[in-house]
Amino acid sequence: MDKLAINFNQLDEDLKKKIQQFQQIQTNLEYIINQRIQLETRLRETELAVEELEKTGSDEIIYKSIGGIMVKSERDKLLAEKKSQKTSLEMKIKTLKQKEERARGQIENMTKSIQSDLQQQQAM
């Protein structure tokens, strides 16, 4: 059990910096994941709105919510707006997934590197 206890203050400066950088990447990854989840929720809501708008006839009265009030809108115009919003959200999610994948790769590499450095320091 004693081998697992590591005093951060006894580590060399390079290893301390590496651990701090590792923690920053972890924090960044959490932020990216949260952003992706929020955008995926908005995407699902947008997809539902598109589905409902496609079910309605062009002659039906449609309202959209703007800042807490409902405003009359044209179905085709609102449908185009929602489809554009859907495309934009899909692109943003794709970008976040790429960032997430990169961060996970960095974390994996840094974990191996830090473990190796710790083993070398303990051997001394």
Structure description:
With 124 residues, this protein is mainly α. It has a single domain, classed as Helix Hairpins. The protein is 74% helix and 8% strand. It has helices at 13-55, 75-123; strands spanning 62-66, 69-73. It has a two-stranded antiparallel ribbon with strand order 1-2. A hairpin with a 2-residue loop joins strand 1 and strand 2. Helix 1 packs antiparallel against helix 2. It is rod-shaped, with a radius of gyration of 24 Å.
Short description:
With 124 residues, the chain is mainly alpha-helical.
Secondary structure topology:
Blueprint: H1 13-55, E1 62-66, E2 69-73, H2 75-123
Antiparallel strand pairs: 1-2
Strand content: 5-15%
Lateral arrangement of strands in the main beta sheet: 1-2
What's the CATH topology name? Helix Hairpins
Query: What share of residues is helical?
Result: over 70%
The sequence of SSEs as H and E is HEEH
Counted by DSSP, the helix tally is 2
Mean pLDDT: 91
Strand elements, count: 2
CATH class: Mainly Alpha
Silhouette: rod-shaped
The CATH architecture assignment turns out to be: Orthogonal Bundle
Rounded to an integer in angstroms, the radius of gyration calculated over CA atoms is: 24 Å
